[in-house]
Amino acid sequence: SCFQTMNKVLNDFRPKLIMNKVRRKSQIAEGRQLIILAKDFLRVEVEYLGYIQADQHVVDSTERMMPFILEYPKCEASKNIFQIIKNLIGGKEEGKSFRHFKKDMKLEARQWR
Fold it and tell me: Is the pTM of this model over 0.85?
């Protein structure tokens, strides 16, 4: 029935939250509060993956049509992206998978230059 289908869709719904252009720690707290509100009022479990700080390097690399994670791998926004990727990978193979990802990013950066 339609009700069973809707129930299945809602039960399988697993949204994730990434805060973007964060400038203050209070904004991170607002994201965590959003997760609590979604659970309390919508009965939806939202997984918090992390945040990306507002970073001028992102703007600079965008103006040059370069991915910031390749052009500025040590800037704060790139570090945030790497942390989010670690959160997504998870599990026992986290270290190995993440090292492989970073190696791939270095190879990719050479091709963009």
Answer: no
